[in-house]
Automatic annotation (TrEMBL), chains A, B:
Gene3D superfamilies: 3.40.50.2300, lambda repressor-like DNA-binding domains
Pfam families: LacI (PF00356), Peripla_BP_3 (PF13377)
Name used for this protein in its record: LacI family transcriptional regulator
Entry's Gene Ontology molecular function annotations: DNA-binding transcription factor activity; transcription cis-regulatory region binding
SUPFAM superfamilies from the UniProt entry: lambda repressor-like DNA-binding domains, Periplasmic binding protein-like I
InterPro entries given in the database record: HTH_LacI, LacI/GalR-like_sensor, Lambda_DNA-bd_dom_sf, Peripla_BP_I
CDD domains: HTH_LacI (cd01392), PBP1_LacI_sugar_binding-like (cd06267)
Coiled coil regions in record: none
Lineage of origin: Bacteria, Bacillati, Actinomycetota, Actinomycetes, Kitasatosporales
Length: 351, 351
DNA sequence: GAAAGCAGTGGGAGCGCTCCCATTCGTGCG
DNA sequence: CGCACGAATGGGAGCGCTCCCACTGCTTTC
């Protein structure tokens, strides 16, 4: 389904040829100046730059891409999950970071929302056809084949969050385990006796890590009471249901660690319905430090991830991979491409 | 600052030429099939399509763009305001709509965050160089020169929200005035006597409309008490401060209409600080129906805008403008390019 | 003092596509 | 039966750029 074609969109603007003519140099030389090659005399450089300024020259991206074989563009791929939620603040933050880091580059950012198998296949073709030079993958599920697929076709890619402990694809992650541990230690430190947890979908590694952190903190405190576990799905509704199940199983629980703020919001509602006071009867801690955390009543204690910084780090890593591939071919610098950023506890009144 | 250049990014994939050879036809014919031209015999079409499938051919976008002069891409431009907030849920929703509507197209979506004068200039050049075929402008301030600038260089553009009542640039807006009116009527209908409002920044037309709706509702109820107005800036902090000022001016107020949910969240905090119960002593209504509205305690009555639908409508309008320009040159169909979508009141417990 | 370097430069050869001008048929008409 | 005309097709001419080879004057080296 071709969408818009046909003869040209408007006045084309000056070409390299015209710039070169105006500067009184050859096309090659003008190109060299524009691309910052060192092999140009100072005089010539100045002349070309003047011509560029006078003519308001802007390189034609399509021509450049065609000739050079690279697109000067990276794709940010967002699988829009079935549940369509995809924690919104997370996304915005990542985007901000990515965009910030890209601002000093003349890379373009292509946004691709994949919502079904058709979309996935479309993107696969895109990548295979090298329509972008690199890919940032956000919110990847454990069984997502896309990362390996990209590796197979030699497309540089960085994912946010590992899919498993020994993820081999370059990634930027945050320290989910330690974050969860901090949260639960905090709860224990406040004298809570029966600490439950609402996990994320356990086919996601991040969710698994947060659960491990929960167990780890309990174990470290010499308290093997880590059986109060219910699985949620990172949605408010899921948190709500999981909390209800917990209350049924153990009416006497006095603390809950939720693996996301949104689920904590759901849990909060369930607690209110059950007439439990927060934090007096039940302490509540979330994860993400998203906007809802601040707006809950009482404001939610939570674990903060440096999401914007993760976005920036992903771009830096991807850019490195991209130039790296050119400069040192396949020299095995393997590694350096795994980054885990620290998380921190943000104390508010819910605990 | 060239970022990534150098020799090609990888194995190039089959070209049109190869497809044509395989199908035993000429390059031109193959092109015709791929672009759905009717001037091809059924037999030939089938042969080419088979070759495409066998070879896994995907057209090279750069080459196409270069030859055809159009980029098959539109830019979504988001000025990232000074206050850096840019109501996040709004953005995500728009994005979802845009992306959905674009899914059936082979248009690319380029995301451009403009954060300073430099970025703005960079984008201006982009547009001038026709690096995209159309532009979607989100969250435009009243004094933003970008829309007119784009018109001057002949770049199709659609903005979300008018900048003034007689906006001449194509736009998709929601009925802010009626929405605000509904909200305030609702408040009056619930027996509230002293209805205040926290407005958005009044250099934004949308904020102005919501204020007008407030006044209109009051006037219609025969109550010219529309003096309890304080200006906010669409941030939580701003809402908080504005609410404090209102309470100072009129401790006896019993209802507040905030021009955004986020400001309502700020106002909620100020009310809590002042010991006012919501909704018993003071009823609160917001605008946007964003996520915070549902998570507030009590959940916030608010005015819903069909944001995702606005995103979709913007794309449809832009696509229309883009093909329109080609097909009927400058025939003055002027109009049809202003769309105002309805808003509705969502009642929750805060009022 | 001649050979050999090298910085600086010009411009040809494509990149893969679309556009469009032929060219080749087949058919309808005078 | 010959001519004209349209449908179907082939392929040349670029689109604006980057890459790279060839070329010019110098300066360096033995």
């Amino acid at each position: 389904m071709p969408a818009a074609r046909g003869g040209g969109t408007g006045k084309p603007g000056p070409t390299l040829e015209q710039v070169a003519a105006r500067a009184g140099v050859g096309r090659g030389t003008a190109s060299r100046v524009i691309n910052g090659s060192p092999r140009v005399s100072e005089r010539t450089r100045a002349a070309v730059q003047a011509a560029v300024a006078e003519l308001g020259y802007v390189p034609n991206r399509a021509a450049r891409a065609l000739a050079a074989g690279s697109m000067d563009a990276i794709a940010l791929v967002v699988p829009e999950q079935e549940n369509r939620l995809f924690a919104e603040p997370y996304f915005s933050e990542i985007l901000r970071g990515v965009s910030t880091e890209l601002a000093d580059t003349d890379m373009q950012l292509l946004l691709t929302l994949i919502r079904d198998e058709r979309g996935r296949e479309r993107f696969r073709q895109y990548a295979a056809a090298h329509r972008v030079d690199g890919v940032l993958l956000v919110s990847v599920h454990g069984d997502d084949p896309l990362p390996d697929l990209l590796r197979d076709i030699g497309m540089p890619a960085v994912i946010s969050g590992r899919r498993s402990h020994d993820e081999h694809v370059p990634y930027v992650d945050s320290d989910n385990l330690l974050g969860a541990q901090l949260a639960v230690e905090h709860l224990i430190g406040r004298g809570r006796r029966k600490v439950a947890t609402v996990t994320g979908p356990l086919d996601m590694y991040a969710a698994r890590c947060r659960l491990d952190g929960y167990h780890e903190a309990l174990r470290a405190a010499g308290r093997p009471d880590g059986h109060l576990v219910e699985e949620g799905d990172f949605t408010e509704e899921g948190g709500h249901r999981a909390m209800r199940r917990l209350l049924e199983r153990e009416p006497g629980l006095d603390a809950v660690f939720c693996a996301s703020d949104v689920m904590a919001a759901g849990a909060r509602i369930a607690l209110r319905e059950a007439g439990r006071e927060v934090p007096d009867e039940v302490a509540l801690v979330g994860f993400d430090d998203s906007a809802v955390a601040r707006h809950m009543d009482p404001p939610l204690t939570t674990v903060r991830q440096p999401i914007e910084e993760m976005g920036r780090a992903m771009v830096r890593m991807l850019l490195g991979l991209m130039t790296g591939r050119r400069e040192r071919a396949v020299r095995d610098t393997a590694g350096q491409h795994h980054l885990v950023l620290p998380t921190e506890l943000v104390r508010r009144r819910s605990s």
